[in-house]
């Protein structure tokens, strides 16, 4: 079945993983890692360096999870997670270690704000809205940051007033905080861009936990300063997984091997996958909880852990890249950055690869905007994106020379992106089960991070933490 | 693995299903039904009567799904769904058809209300609270009924203002509607008892849809009048599934066969299960969406359907029965019915089997109250239940002669009960995918009903509807 699962361009990915890797699965290992995303690969690498025999089982025909390589006009592009922020020390260190070069997200010139039916261009980080709306939005952002500062993202359920914060949706808080329409629109855009859901879907506590893990909402939203969108990896962030996979022992990675059952016993764990079964001393489940729901753990999991798997849906996002003959926006003194409340396409940023003669833009269909277009033919999304870009950038945007996108919602081995989130009532009840090992079963994936939850950096933290847990456990 | 999955008393269930049923799976059938709960068995029976060859795959070692037989002091008891209401025409008709006898839930005498730290006994349906609190609770109930009356439970997403109703939690609505503490407490008890979740977990629209499907909130809550708890099936509701299973053709039911993949093609569907695989023309998935999440459908499902599987968590409930030498409460003129806001055990009702010399009480750990006790040793729950019963009924309740419970949250093939529910934002976006067939894949289970959603009656409707769909479809 694996062949028709991934509709994106995996050439870059495939290139890095010779087919012979998919052939053999060791029957007995110290640690079996389920999922070859960044978290799983990082855990596998650390364990292997630590002298443990390992096997990584991956359902897809590629590694990388929510990072993924694609191609547009002959250039490699990131169809999944890609940006790196200056305070994301783990991914920065890994880039240095792997010899991957970083370069700044293009951000020179005017930004565009399209709110309440008006297009405005502005410079710097403060959009030119009405003073009242700007004050209103600023006050809400500061309010969220202040509340987030009281939360330990490693244990949000212990925060003062956690139960009350988890009883309400982010929407409930925004409704009672914001009093201007445009201010609310700005916060809705930020919600969709950062959490890939609507404000009424996510618990306030869950949103605050993510903010706390990043430092502030501005850091999550921004390209400039310490912003999480400040840097990119030359050649693509998807190379991180490829290089981590390359360093694994031969035969340790098995692709196209979806796991359907994990059966612990007194002496080890049996992992049943599409191609057979593996006996391991311990298992690391390096998957988003919504994907762990696919696995039959029998009666091995405590009820709250089992509940978590059906109470942490994935966000909704489709990432799209549009290529033009030239980066015409740059010539006009525009950065290419667009923030819009009109939907369905935005935010938008410059995505021109260094040295390319062409101009690329990257944008998102996110939250509710993505659902209508998920599963639809790509041409429909292309048309929607180009229409929006014409509105933002004028007639020159009408004639792209290329388009590619990745519908993460329709991807059966992701079920969405960027990450899993929780509705009211889940984090305070099932949250403590997020990282807690269940006997020989350990949990990883960016959802289990305590810093940069949902980001590449969080995935690396989660992989390192899970590996350390296993190393410290009895065999 | 099947042996250690079901910790409850399955003797009654096992008795009805000779082991030879589990042995053979036909390799090719017209219709494969996944799940041998009431919905799946009803669909299977209808299809078989209609001349279709069928195979029912059940993960457990018993049929019945969320109905389940147990034993207490030598008497058969229902550890799962059991009550029948006078407007539940499908289950009433099935009882008549199967020769199962109904008898009224014991409700003679005084009821007990334990709210805000005060125990009050009352007669009839109106509890003796302060006038203000009673008026307040009554107004909220009428408000919910009025709102529910504007909703077609077959398509709540089309209701006027559906998006707004689905943006908020039931808690949001209750907060702005109720102004007395005791009034709010009553509504919280009703929420937990009816939806098995906390008011902040469920979307207002989702709650209203369930109410609309039942007729009114009182009908859902009541023992008297047209109340959904008015009648019981002599010998146990679990017999429904047993008898439906007995009428299937020999070999059509395969137990201990969890399905891990469904792979549709142009000409049929391959269903992979623990014991092998089956080719079918069509498949009916008669599972709660949270359990359908276990199955790998590859890229066969539209994104919104796939999202539904991780956005419809199961409610949280543990059902417990406590036996006493005599039904001492009856002698005192008490019905045995208790409604309490103290937690964790309640509501409580008389559960004495007709003709038994002993006295049984049945009660629930529901919503948030159940989570702390789920997965714990049964003795802990027994102690909690008996402690609560002493408070309600005095020292005579301190010396039970028997206890049995069913922790539905810890049951890997249920993941909770009574039914799946949706948080804000799901019903209006993914709801339309609830019943919509996906090519050769059809959906059933009580969550897909349009009347009595989450009840036995809804399961039968869902089974009948799915069978009719398949009968009307090309082979």
> What's the count of strands of chain A?
18
Uncertain segments of chain A are 1-23
How is the quaternary structure best described?
homodimer
Biggest sheet architecture of chain A: 7 strands, mixed
Number of helices of chain A: 17
In CATH, the topology of the domain at 2-65 and 238-312 and 423-471 in chain A is named: FAD/NAD(P)-binding domain
* Most extensive contact: A-B, 54 and 54 residues
Strand content of chain A: 15-25%
Q: Would you state the CATH class of the domain at 2-65 and 238-312 and 423-471 in chain A?
A: Alpha Beta
N-end to C-end Cα span of chain A:
35 Å
Quick one: overall form of chain A?
Answer: globular
Q: Give me the secondary-structure category of chain A.
A: alpha/beta
Helix content of chain A: 25-40%
Summed over residues and divided by their number, the pLDDT of chain A gives a mean of 93
The CATH architecture of the domain at 2-65 and 238-312 and 423-471 in chain A is 3-Layer(bba) Sandwich
Notes on the structure:
By secondary structure, chain A is α/β, with parallel strands linked by helices. Among the domains of chain A are: 188 residues, FAD/NAD(P)-binding domain (3-Layer(bba) Sandwich), CATH 3.50.50; 96 residues, Guanine Nucleotide Dissociation Inhibitor, domain 1 (Orthogonal Bundle), CATH 1.10.405.10. Chain A has 17 helices and 18 strands. In chain A, the strands form 5 sheets. In chain A, strands 1, 2, 9, 10, 11, 12 and 18 form a 7-stranded mixed beta sheet that branches. A 4-stranded antiparallel beta sheet of chain A has the order 15-16-13-17. In chain A, helix 2 runs parallel beside helix 10, helix 4 packs across helix 7 and helix 4 crosses helix 8. The N terminus of chain A is likely disordered. Chains A, B: This is Oxidoreductase. Chains A, B: Its cofactor is FAD.
